[in-house]
Design a protein that fits this description.
6 copies of one chain form a homohexamer.
Chain A: H1 2-7, E1 13-20, E2 23-35, E3 40-43, H2 48-63, H3 65-68, H4 72-77, E4 78-83, H5 97-109, E5 117-119, E6 122-123, E7 129-130, H6 135-144, E8 149-153, H7 157-161, E9 172-176, H8 179-186
Parallel strand pairs in A: 1-5, 3-4, 5-8, 8-9
Antiparallel strand pairs in A: 1-2, 2-4, 6-7
Helix pairs in contact in A: 2-5, 5-8
The complex binds calcium ion (CA) (12 copies).
One calcium ion is lined by residues 25, 86 of chain C.
Chain lengths: 188, 188, 188, 188, 188, 188
C-alpha cells in the first residue's frame, strides 16, 4: 500500500511488529535529530520496559558508533527523539528493541530503511538479538499490511516453522542473532 | 461571534476540537514566547498523552525550522509555554497535536492564524497527520461556535461523508496528510 | 476592618475570593521577591491547577513586561515566591488566576494594590479573563469581610444580575475581559 | 528542667508547641548552617505543609535580611538545614512556622534564643502571624515542661482567656501579630 | 567471633543495634569516600527516616568539621556513600543515627572504630543523642554476637537497669548525651 | 553450549544465577562504557534493591580503582550502563551484586570474564561478600546451562554440602568472602 512505500523515503522511520490482546499489528518507530547535547526523549505512551529499549539502543550506538559509521560529533551535539505513533494506545514490552536501534541508526546516518521491511526482537547491551513472543500473529499482521520481508531472532525460527507455509509464501524471513546483522539488512 | 474574531489577531492562538463525554466542544490552544533557553512548559490540566503532543510538535519544529521559516536563534533563546484554557477541566488524548504544532509555529513566526478556522488531528514525528475520533460531534460543535473552516486528516474523510450534508453546508473541510499542509492552510 | 486596611500598604498582597464546600470566603495571595535567577516557588497547600495559575501568570508577565512597566532585570535576577495563607487548608482551582497575576505585578512594580478590593477569575496565556463559579457565595463573603469593590470577568455579569440587589448595594463590581484591565483597576 | 536551660545556649534551637492526638507536647526546632550555595534542607519526618513553613520562613528572611540584621553573604554562601527531632514521629501542620523562622534567624545571627520560651503560630509571606489550634493543650504541655513564657498570635488571645487562670499563673503570654515582634521577643 | 574482629580494621564500618519484629539484631553501617563534589548516596533498602539520619549526620559534620578534626577539603572534594548491608531487608527508624555519624567520621578521618563496640541512638542536628526503643532486645543480640561494649543515650539508662544483671555481665555500657562523646568513645 | 562460549569473549558480560518462583535460572549481566561524565545507567526491569547493588559496585570501584587496576580517567570520563537482559521479566534482590561488580570491572579493564563461570552473592561497600538464598536451585540451573565453575560466598558452603554430590560432580565451586577474590577468580 502507498502508506508503506511512502514511509521508506524518510530516515528514522522503521516498521515494527506488535502483539496485542486483539491480535498482531504493525507499528512505526520514528526518530528525529535536533541541535542539542546528546539527550534522548521518548514519546508515544510508552511503558518503562519499552523506554528502556530506547536507552539500551542509544548506549549501544554510543559504544559502537565507529563500526556503525556514525559521527561522534552528532552523538554529542544532537538530541534524539524517538516516537511511536498512536499516542492513545499504551505500548510496552522489549520486542521493539531492534526496530528502535534501527530507527536511531537510520537517523544518525541520515539514510532511510529498506522499504516493505518489518522487524521484531529484543536487544541486549552486548549486541545480541533475543527472541520475542507472538510471532504467528505478528507475521500475519505483516502480510496483511503489505510487508514483503521481516527480520526475526534466530531463536524464533522454530516459531515460524510451526506456521502453515501458505500464509507466508510472499514473505521473506531473515534470521539474525546480532544487532550488526539487523543494521546490515535494514539500511542499505 | 465576537470571541472568535478577536482571537484571530493574537499569534499563538489556535482553535482545536475536543470530543468529551457530553459531546463535542471547541478548545483553544495558546502559546507564548519569553526570553530563556529553549525550554517547553505546558499548563491547562493536561494528561500525559496531550503533553507528549506538545513535545512532539516542538521536536518537529526544531528539526524543520528552516522549511518553516523559524529563526534558529528564537528556538535557542526563547522559552515556549503552551496552555489550554479552562484549567478546571482535565484534558488528554493526541487529537490536539496539529493545533499545538500550529500554535507554536504561529508564536515563533509571530503571525496569527486564519480566523474562523479549527482543526483536529494527531501528529507524528516524521510530519504525518493521523486520524482521530469523534469527528461528527466535533464538527457540529465547530458550526455551533461559528467556525467556517476546519482541517482534518485525509483518513477522516470517510467519517465526514457519513454526516448529513445539511449540517455542514456552511463549513469548508480541508483534508491533509502532512503537517506542512496544516501550516500552509492555517498561517497565511 | 483594620485587617483589610492594613493589607493594602504591602506590595504583593491581593484579596481573592474562594468558593468552598461551606460557602464563600476571602483568601489572600501574597508574593515576595528575593535575589535569585528568576525561579518561581509556590506554597500554601496548593493543588496542581492552582499552581498552574501561578505559572501562567509569570509567563504572561515575562512576555508582556514592557507594557506592564516591569524591569527585565528584576525578572532575571529576582526569584518570586507566591504564598496563599492558611497552610492547613488545601486549595485548588483556576479562579485565583487574576489575583495571582495582580500579586506578582504588584511585587515586581513594588506598588501596593488598591485597598478594599477583591477579585476572582481564571487567566489565560493570551491575556483573557475567563468566568468562574460560585459568584453569589463569593460576593456575599466579600461584603461580610468589608470589601468595597470587586473585579469579575465580563462573562460573570449574568451571575451577578441574578443576585438580590440589596445584598450588593455597598459593593462596586467591575467587569473585565482582559488581564490588562485587571492590572489597571488594581494597581493605581 | 536542665534540658531546657541547656538548650538556650545553642543558636538555632527553638521550642515549639505541638498538638497531637494524645494531647499537647513541646517539640524542638533546630537549624544549622554549613558552607554551600544557599540551599535549604529539611528533616524530621515532616509533612508537606510543615516543609512549606520552612520555605516561607527562608523566603521571608531573604526578602528582609537587612531589617533582621542578617548578612547577605551568609544567605548566599551557607546552606541551612532545619530539623525537628524525634524522627520516628510524623509531624505536619503550619503551627511551627514562627518557631522555624526564629530558629533560622537565630542561626544566621549566631545568637541563641531566650531560655524557657516557647512559641506557636503560622507565618505568612508578608510577615503576619496567624492563629493556630490546640492552644489549651499546648499551654498545659508548656507549663509541664518548665516553660516560663510563650509567644502566641494576637488572634489566639480569646483561646487563652477561656483557660482557668490557675493553670497559667507561672506562664507569661506574649501576643504578636507580626514576625518582627516574634524575633524581637525571642532573640535578645 | 572472627567476623567482628575483622571488621574493626576497616575505617567506615560501625556496628549498630536493630530491633525488629523477630527480636534484636546487630547490623553494620558502612561508609566509603570517593572523588567527587561532596554528595551523599545511601543504599541498603533504607526508609525515609533512616535516610534522614544520614543527612543529619552529614550536616552536623559539615558544621563541626574543625572540632572533629576533619578536612574541609575532603568534605568538598569527596563523595560519601553510606550502606547498610543485607539489601533484601527493609530498614527504617532513627536509631541508627549515632552509628551513621560515627561511620562517616571514621571514613573522613580514615581511622577505624574500636573493635567489639556497638551503638544505638537517635541524633539531632544540635549534637544531642536521643533515647531509642528495644534496648533489652538490642543488648541481648549484642552479647550473642560477641559485642563487649555499647554506647547508649543517657536517657536509656533506666531501660538497662530493668534488665537482669546476669545477662549483661560481660558488656560494658557507656551512656552519652552528646555526639562528641560518641565520637570520643568510638574512634580512638 | 555455544551460547555460553560465545559470551566469554565480550568484556562486561557475566553469568549470574537467579532464584525465581519457578526454580533456578541463569541470567546475564552486561555492562558497556561510553564517553561521558561518570554516570551510571541501569536497565532490565530492575527493582530498587538490584539497582542499589549496581550503585554499591560502582562506589566500591571508585574507592578501590588502584588495586583493581582501573584507570581514574575512565571512571571520570566514561559513562557506564548496566543491563540485565529479558526486559519483560522484573528482577530484584541483592544476589546479583558480585556479578554486577565483576561485569563493571571487566568493562573498565576491557578484559573478558573466564568462560563457563557463574556467580551469585551480595556485595557490601567494604568489600565483603554476603550469602544468598536458593543455592540448590541455582546450582542445578547452572549445570543444566553448561556452567563448569561457580563463585559463592563462604557462608553458603553449608548450603552446598546439603546437596546430593552426584548433582554437582562436573561443577567446581569456589568460596570467597571478599570482592577482591571474586575479581581474581573471574578476570584472568
Ligand atoms: Ca494500528
Ligand atoms: Ca512485546
Ligand atoms: Ca468549553
Ligand atoms: Ca482526543
Ligand atoms: Ca478563612
Ligand atoms: Ca475555583
Ligand atoms: Ca515528645
Ligand atoms: Ca499544627
Ligand atoms: Ca542479620
Ligand atoms: Ca529504630
Ligand atoms: Ca531465562
Ligand atoms: Ca535474590
Amino acid at each position: 500500500p502507498s502508506t508503506l512505500s511512502e514511509v521508506s523515503k524518510v530516515p528514522g522511520v522503521v516498521t515494527g511488529l506488535a502483539w496485542t490482546s486483539v491480535g498482531g499489528d504493525i507499528l512505526f518507530i520514528e526518530s528525529i535529530l535536533s541541535k542539542g547535547k546528546g539527550t534522548l526523549t521518548m514519546t508515544g505512551n510508552l511503558g518503562n520496559v519499552m523506554k528502556e529499549s530506547a536507552t539500551i539502543a542509544l548506549e549501544y550506538i554510543k559504544a559502537h558508533y565507529e563500526e556503525l559509521g556514525i559521527s561522534a560529533e552528532d552523538l554529542e551535539n544532537k538530541n534524539i527523539h524517538v516516537h511511536v505513533p498512536e499516542g492513545a494506545t499504551p505500548k510496552d514490552g522489549p520486542s521493539a528493541g531492534i526496530a528502535m536501534l534501527t530507527s536511531m541508526v537510520s537517523s544518525y546516518k541520515n539514510k532511510s530503511v529498506k522499504p516493505h521491511l518489518a522487524m521484531t526482537g529484543e536487544i541486549t547491551l552486548r549486541g545480541k538479538v533475543l527472541p520475542v513472543g507472538g510471532i504467528k500473529e505478528k507475521l500475519l499482521a505483516a502480510t496483511r499490511a503489505g510487508i514483503k520481508e521481516v527480520i526475526l531472532c534466530e531463536a524464533n525460527r522454530k516459531d515460524v516453522e510451526e506456521i502453515n507455509k501458505d500464509y507466508l509464501k510472499h514473505l521473506k524471513v531473515n534470521y539474525v542473532s546480532k544487532m550488526s546483522e539487523v543494521v546490515d539488512l535494514a539500511i542499505v
